[in-house]
């Protein structure tokens, strides 16, 4: 998916909602447990209930990996089921020396490898340039680099002063030399809204993937005010608040209600934006 | 495996060799391709040929993940096959917010999750304390935190000045507040030998996992001189130089010759050490 296709999708759907598929087999509604693949059955119902409201889906790879081989099968089926008019994110936070990052890139981008072809993958920056470049070699694919994350531990290293910047700002500046905004997004936690304006100054054109609205306590209003651009420029993720709105047979309906409330607020914020 | 068990193993086997199982299906000897699981058949032969010479095995998870579900099956079989007197490392470089790191920890440590029970996992520090703590909750298990990696990109962020330290030194100092040397190792690239002495000053008791000898050009002599301690204190990894010493039917014999050469040099360096 190209930059302008993603931007168009946001204004067409009046949404920058990303639904995080952090599907935990221990939290599934009981009636799904007799399905041949309960994780996929759950994801399918969530996708059916939200596909017109969301512009992106983000399976959190840890949840699938923790199920061993059958988790990877659920992931493949889930990815295949996501409609073409939704951007897909492998939330994997990978990063290793070049020859190994090359394999991680194949895993998530090359369907002949692990049967997966995501639009994007989240990447950790600690190992630097040659750990990131292999992910950029795939045409039409994106990387989403960790910059300032939503968790409390983000203070430990990301917020440290390096010269006249904090480390996360240096990561953003450095990454600009690796790829343009047509292939490069950044992760910025919604719990870090104070810094979002500063990040928009140094990353005016990049899409930002913003987790932390909902269960983690970030404010959609503040994130939108500081982060929206003429291209949209945001993918705001909600996972638990949508997925686990109910653990009964009404889980998909309740998920839709949660997603709809977020989408309707997003539509209002987008109405204030003049599309590029 | 405990700290003293690992230390004893090193002096008993006169080796601190870690064999990196970066098993690439595209590089397997041809005669293995008719096996039901060529990757496992290769690993089994490599383990048989080196188990008396190595104290640790380190499957590089990217290589298995890139094969999809069947790669995870090869990984399970490989881990089950590694003898009990060898330390096992999941080289996964994971790290995410707490509830997600918890799942990654389950993946590699809890055999009821993905069928895997490694002794240790490599972890990326960028997301800080709460991204690392879930891995420390497992008794008898270790984390191996990225500090100063072997690749050129290590200069981008790890070598940046943060106050009166470089970032990798701050990572080491900070991590000391999370766990003791009985559960915490650091990754230090062999290509960074100049810094090894400095790292030994701030991490005198921690085991260091040192990749980069062999294909990446690091010197075993220099690493040993600067890194060995009275407990051994080193796990020096070699992957490609052992695994792909030959691509013929003699691959396991040739792997043994490469491993034996490293082990014999290690035995000499250990002879200069008074065991704690």
TrEMBL record, chains A, B:
Sorted keywords for this record are: Decarboxylase, Lyase, Pyrimidine biosynthesis
Question: What residue stretches are annotated with the Orotidine 5'-phosphate decarboxylase domain?
Answer: 16-255
Check the record and name the SUPFAM superfamilies matching this protein: Ribulose-phoshate binding barrel
An example GO biological process term is: 'de novo' UMP biosynthetic process
A Pfam family it matches: OMPdecase
> What EC number(s) would the UniProt record show?
4.1.1.23
Keyword Lyase appears in the UniProt entry = yes
In its UniProt record, a GO molecular function of this protein is: orotidine-5'-phosphate decarboxylase activity
What reaction is this protein's catalytic activity? orotidine 5'-phosphate + H(+) = UMP + CO2
Q: Which InterPro entries match?
A: Aldolase_TIM, OMPdecase_type-2, OMPdeCOase_dom, RibuloseP-bd_barrel
In which pathway is this protein known to take part? Pyrimidine metabolism; UMP biosynthesis via de novo pathway; UMP from orotate: step 2/2
Q: What class of enzyme is it?
A: lyase
Question: Is Nucleotide-binding there in the keyword field?
Answer: no
Q: Which family does it belong to?
A: Belongs to the OMP decarboxylase family. Type 2 subfamily.
- Its protein name is Orotidine-5'-phosphate decarboxylase
Can you name the source organism? Spirosoma arboris
Lineage of the organism: Bacteria, Pseudomonadati, Bacteroidota, Cytophagia, Cytophagales
């Amino acid at each position: 998916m190209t930059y302008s296709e993603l931007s168009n999708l946001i204004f067409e759907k009046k949404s920058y909602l990303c639904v995080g598929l952090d599907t935990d087999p221990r939290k599934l509604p009981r009636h799904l447990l007799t399905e041949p693949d309960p994780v996929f059955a759950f994801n399918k119902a969530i996708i059916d209930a939200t596909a017109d409201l969301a512009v992106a889906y983000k399976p959190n790879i840890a949840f699938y990996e923790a199920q061993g081989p059958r988790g990877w099968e659920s992931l493949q089926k889930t990815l295949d089921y996501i409609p073409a008019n939704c951007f897909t994110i492998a939330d994997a936070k990978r990063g290793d020396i070049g020859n190994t990052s090359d394999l991680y890139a194949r895993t998530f981008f090359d369907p002949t490898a692990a049967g997966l072809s995501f639009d994007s993958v989240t990447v950790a920056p600690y190992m630097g340039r040659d750990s990131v470049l292999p992910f950029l070699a795939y045409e039409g694919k994106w990387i989403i680099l960790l910059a300032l994350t939503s968790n409390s531990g983000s203070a430990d290293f990301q917020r440290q002063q390096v010269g006249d910047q904090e480390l996360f700002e240096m990561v953003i500046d450095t990454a600009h030399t690796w790829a343009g905004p047509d292939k490069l997004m950044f992760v910025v936690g919604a719990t870090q809204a104070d810094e979002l304006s500063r990040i928009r100054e140094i990353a005016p054109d990049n899409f930002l993937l913003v987790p932390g609205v909902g269960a983690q306590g970030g404010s959609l209003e503040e994130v939108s005010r500081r982060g929206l651009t003429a291209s949209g420029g945001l993918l705001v993720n909600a996972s638990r608040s949508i997925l686990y709105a109910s653990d009964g047979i009404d889980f998909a309906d309740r998920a839709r209600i949660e997603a709809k409330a977020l989408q309707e607020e997003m539509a209002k914020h987008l109405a204030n934006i003049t599309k590029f």
